[in-house]
Each structure stands twice: as C-alpha cells, then as structure tokens.
Amino acid sequence: MPVAKHVILRPVSRLREWLSPAPRPDPILFIHIAKTAGTSMRRMLQEEFGSRRVYPGDHYLRSLPHGMYPPCIDLLRDHARLPRHDVLVGHFSAAMADLLPRPYRTATFLREPVQRSLSMLGQHSRMWGVPVAALLDDPKFMNDNIADFQTRILGVDGACNPHEAGSIDDATLARALGRLEALDFVGLTERFAESCALFDARFGTSVSSRIRRDLVNRPDGTELSEHIPRVAAMLDRDRVLYERAVACFGARIASARH
User: What is 2-256's CATH number, 3.40.50.300, 3.40.630.30, 1.10.630.10, 3.40.50.2300?
Assistant: First the structure.
C-alpha cells in the first residue's frame, strides 16, 4: 500500500502547483552571497510569496542533497522543469542573470568585507569542527571563500562555481563595479531595514514588515576580531567594491526621500 500512496500523492502535488496563481511576470533572481543576511532575506521572501514560490527555499531544500542550493549549471540545465516561482535564489555569480533563458530582475546584498569574512570563518569553523586558525592557514579555503569574495561573485563570468573561480584581478573588479550599477537592487547588510524598504519600493513587496535575523554567527559583532589584520590583507578589491556600493546606496536613499 505505501507504493500506491506514493503514486497518488505525486500527481496531487503537481496539480496543486499548476492550480496555484501564475508567477509574477518579472521574477526576481536573488544572488545570495554567503554571510550577508541572505538566509534571512530568503525566508522573508518565502513569507511574502509563499514557501513554494521561492526556489529553492526551505520547502525544496529539505529534499535536495545536504539541504544545499543546486549548482548554477544544474539550474541552467533544468530551468524549464523548475517549479513555478517568483524568486530564484542561489550561491551563484551575478553572471547567472545573463545565462538564464528568460529575464529576471536582479537583487543581492553586500556586507562590509572584513565582517563578512569573519562570519564566514566562524561558520565554517563550527560546521567543520576546525579551529579558525587552521582555516586561516589553509590557502585554498582562504582563496575560495575569503579573498575578495564579493568581487568574485559580481565579477566572474560564465556558469562557474564562485568558490572555485580562481584568482581575482583588476579586470574582475572592473566587471564587478559594472554589474553593481546594472543590478536592479543592491542592499547593505549593515543597513538592513533601510535596504528592505528600498527593496519594497523597487519590487512592490512588503518584506520590510517581515524583518528577521537567522543564522547570526557573531551576535556581538566583535567575535574573532583578533584575526582582522590577516583577513583585511586579502580584501583590497572588496573594499573598493563595497565603498562604491555604499555611495550608490546613499544616493538611492536620498532619491527616495525626495
């Protein structure tokens, strides 16, 4: 009998999907940069649109390997078969927007580079049971997850894993600065409430009424500060990118007030 139950449930689930409201004509591509409050934002979007309309949100992650976002190459290959969605989210680079077979409006958050890097170190230290000092001494980990990482996300080209994109150079930074201007929305983690209000104005949503803080690894904001000198030395391009993002954000805030 369990087999029969399984056979019955699958068509019902598919029918429920097709009977749900049509997705918005301008879906959002949310570029989730690790440790920039992306999980909080994704869950706020799930509350906004419904758990099944954010792919892959918590509803889908439970059944995906290790509860992880699919690689961008899989999303591109399987795009026509994805569930109906209003938001497509993942740890992909901003170049993803140019590769998808249909247009999306693009959104991401950036965070002060040192603070993002310390949070990344803290998360992986707890997740892997490895001391932060050991991660700092691991050249591959530091290159793949810390060194100018936000510049990497905005600046690399093609359907690559951003964690394996190799070295970042000034050409990558130039592309990142260009994409910063081209994205429909760039929020700042440090100014999360203001960012959510701008997001609502941009996309006609109400996420600013749903603000939450999930997966906060450094609640005091001072944890791991003894490692700042080693981390900061790897973030020259990220600082340039972030300073430009802060300037752009300030201009948008000023424009919204007039």
Answer: 3.40.50.300
